[in-house]
Write a structure and sequence with these properties.
By secondary structure, the chain is of the alpha/beta class. It has two domains: 140 residues, HAD superfamily/HAD-like (Rossmann fold); 78 residues, DNA polymerase, domain 1. Strand 2, helix 6 and strand 3 form a beta-alpha-beta unit. Helix 3 runs antiparallel to helix 4. The protein starts with 5 loop residues before the first strand and ends with a helix. GO terms for molecular function: hydrolase activity.
């Protein structure tokens, strides 16, 4: 089988840790709003608000921050205090500037793939400014030939990008932690996908296992195993 023409990596929770930071902020929100009910009620309301707002605000820390504020307003019947809103804003700002450290094996894998002559891409979804900032803070930018930050990672997006880069099924790999965003749409299009699971998964990235039935994709337990798949 011919060597891949282009290898794309998801960013959050593939190249660096992301979801745990959001989980920590959500835990702090539960403490702030503890007087409004139990944790399950607050979490369910936050998820409902996020689900509605993603269609307007997209993904990322800014969208999450606005959804936390809206959730606080709703759960307190508009009695949330200025101090509490400021706390939420500060937590959101923290998500926009936390230190970025590559996950284990990332630098090793990217270095070797570059040595082998492959073209590398970051393909991630989210807020443009936020994702560009994280890539810069990671120190990984020099490894990549291309950076694509998109509003959604679905079949239509992949089709558009693959056409732009003239990638054929045997010439493309998508590597990421999200079955929903990195694996399912790519496998459905007949291109190669490699699932590298991360221990924390955002609730909106879960996918019905039935949707994966019959689809061909690779699954590894460590990113370094990618080097065995990509020669």
């Amino acid at each position: 089988m011919a060597a891949p023409h282009l290898i794309a990596f998801d960013a959050d929770d593939t190249l660096w840790s992301n979801q745990p930071h959001f989980d920590q902020v959500e835990a702090r929100l539960l403490d702030i709003l503890a007087h409004c009910g139990d944790a399950q009620r607050i979490t369910e309301q936050l998820n409902a608000v996020q689900r509605q707002n993603m269609r307007l605000f997209g993904y990322g820390a800014k969208s999450f921050m606005l959804s936390m504020i809206e959730t606080a307003i709703q759960l307190t019947d508009s009695k949330v205090t200025g101090v509490e809103i400021q706390q939420i804003l500060d937590m959101g700002k923290d998500l926009l500037r936390y230190p970025i450290e590559p996950l284990p094996g990332v630098v090793e894998v990217l270095t070797e793939l570059r040595r082998r002559g492959h073209r590398l891409m970051v393909l991630t979804k989210g807020d443009l400014f936020d994702q560009e900032s994280k890539l810069a803070r990671s120190g990984l930018g020099e490894f990549f030939d291309y950076v694509e930050i998109v509003s959604e990672k679905d079949e239509a997006t992949y089709q558009r990008l693959l056409a732009r880069y003239n990638a054929l099924p045997g010439e493309f790999f998508m590597i990421g932690n999200s079955l929903k965003s990195d694996i399912l749409p790519v496998a459905q299009l007949g291109f190669r996908a490699v699932h590298v699971p991360f221990y924390a998964t955002w609730v909106f990235e879960h996918v019905d296992p039935e949707k994966l039935e019959g689809l061909e994709f690779h699954a590894v337990t460590d990113l370094r195993q990618v080097l065995e798949l990509v020669k």
